[in-house]
Amino acid sequence: MPQLVFLTLFLGLSSGKATVSLQADASIATIRLELDSRVVATIDHAPWSADVDFGPELMPQRLTAVGLDARGKEIARASQDVNLPRDVAEVEILVKSEKGHPSRAALIASSRKHAEPAESQLSLDGNRLPLGTDFSAPLPATDWSRPHVLTAEMTFRDGETARGETIVSGGIGQTVTSDLTPVLVTRSRRGDPKSLDGCFTIDGAEIRGNSLEQGNPLVILVKNPGSKSPWRFPSDREYPLDPDTSSRILWVIPQQYTAKDEPTYSLFAPTSDFSATRFGVGWLLTRSLKPVPDGPRQFADAVGVAGLAAYQSGRRRAVVLLLDNTSDLSLHSPAVIQRYLARLGVPLFVWSIGKLSPRGWGNVVDITSRASLATAVDAVKDALKAQSVVWVAADPLATLRIQGNDRCGLRPLAAPVTKPDENRRPAS
C-alpha cells in the first residue's frame, strides 16, 4: 500500500492559516486534507502543498491527509494532532514500494528549533540498515507478508533526539501509538465509586476507566523574570504546596525559531522541577533569573504553553499566572488562552502584584498581602486535592470529549468550549 507523509509537522501551538506540505507515493493522484473530518483542501498535483486555516482559536484537532488513486479510491492515509502534546523533535519513516513490495525507507525529520540532523540510524527488526546522505536506505528482500518493525533514531545538532517506529505488514506502514490516555477528573462528593463501570462516555459510547489515581501533582508558575518582588521571605519553605507536589517556573520571554517554508515556533524557557518539601511558593515568586535574552513579554502565549505542558504531564495539575505592570505582547488574547486551557482540562489561577485591572483575565487575585497570598495558595492546593486521574482506552483527542455519569461523582475537567474570539491579534 502506498504511503503518505507530512513534511510540515505542527509541533507547537497553531492557529490561523498555515501551509501544509506532504510527500506522496507516485501512485497517489489526489490528496484530500481534512480537519476533524471536514475537508479543508484538495491537492491534485505535486508539489503536494496547500494552505489550511486552523481557525482563530487554539483548538485541539486532527489534521488528516487522504491519498486517492486516479479512480478516486483511497490508497493511503496519514494524520497528526494539532495543539496537543508533541515532542520537541520528531522523525517519520516513509516506506516506498516498487512492484507492490517495500523497497526503500526514508527518514523525514522536524525540530521546533529547526535544528539540522547530526546523527541518524535505521534498523529493520533490530538489524542496522546503511543510511545514505539523504537519510534513506534500501530495504532487503524478505517475507513482507508477515509484520516487520522499522525503527529510526535521529539526533539533532542542538542535542535533541527523536525516535520513530513503523510496523510494515503486507507492504503497509503503520505508526506505533499508545491508546491509553490519562484523563483528569474532579470528585463532586466524598469517596470514590466502587466501580468505574458506566462512569464515562465518549460521543454517547461507554468507555471504561482502568484505574483512579491521585499521584504527584504539578504546578507551573508563569512569570516575568524582571518582576520586582514586594516580598521578603526569610525561609525558602514559606507558603508551601503539599509535600508531594512538584513546581516549575515558565518565563514569559520567548525565543523565536524560524526557517523557510516551515512554521515559526516560540519556545518559552522552563526551569527544572522543584520539590514542595524544599521550596515554597514564596521562593518561586521571588526568583528573578533571566534565562533568555531580554525581549517582549508574552504572558498569554506563555500560559498556553504552560497549559499544554501541564496536560502532557498526565498528572493532577494547575497553572498559575503572575501578572505585573508589564505590557503583554502576546499573539493570542487571554480569552483564547483561557478557553484553550478549559478544553485541555487545566485549571488556571491568575495572581497579580498590586491591584491591576483584569486585562481580559477575569478574576485576578492581588497577592501583595501575606493573608491574600496564603488564601491564594490554599485555593490551588484545594483544587489539586479534588483532582484524580483516570486512565481510559482512547486516544488523547477523543478523551477531550469525555463525559461523566453523575451517579459516579466524577467530572472530567476537559470542556468542549467553542466560543470564537473576536479580539485575537494578528500574527506578526
Please, could you describe this protein's structure?
- With 428 residues, the protein is mostly beta strands.
- The chain is built from 5 helices and 29 strands.
- Strand 17 and strand 18 form a beta hairpin.
- Helix 2 runs parallel beside helix 3 (334-344).
- It is globular and about 75 Å long.
Keywords:
globular, 7-stranded mixed beta sheet, mainly beta, 5-stranded antiparallel beta sheet, disordered C terminus, 5 helices
Summarize the entry for a quick read.
With 428 residues, the chain is mainly beta. 12% of the residues lie in helices and 41% in strands. Helix 2 (299-312) packs parallel to helix 3.
- How much of the sequence lies in strands comes to 35-45%
Q: Distance between the terminal alpha carbons, to the nearest Å?
A: 42 Å
What is the approximate shape? globular
Query: Helicity range of the residues?
Result: 10-25%
Mean pLDDT score, rounded?
89
Number of helices: 5
Structural class label: mainly beta
Major beta sheet summary? 7 strands, mixed
Could you name the ranges where pLDDT drops below 50 across 5 or more consecutive residues? Answer: 421-428
Q: Secondary structure elements and their pairing?
A:
Blueprint: E1 4-6, E2 17-24, E3 30-35, E4 38-43, E5 49-53, E6 61-68, E7 74-82, E8 89-98, E9 101-111, E10 117-124, E11 127-129, E12 136-138, E13 148-156, E14 161-169, E15 172-175, E16 180-187, E17 200-202, E18 205-207, E19 209-213, E20 218-223, E21 246-257, E22 265-270, E23 274-275, H1 281-285, H2 299-312, E24 317-323, H3 334-344, E25 348-352, E26 365-366, H4 370-385, E27 387-393, H5 396-399, E28 402-404, E29 410-412
Parallel strand pairs: 20-21, 20-24, 24-25, 25-26
Antiparallel strand pairs: 1-2, 2-5, 3-4, 3-6, 6-7, 8-9, 9-12, 10-11, 10-13, 13-14, 14-15, 16-27, 16-29, 17-18, 17-28, 19-27, 21-22, 21-23
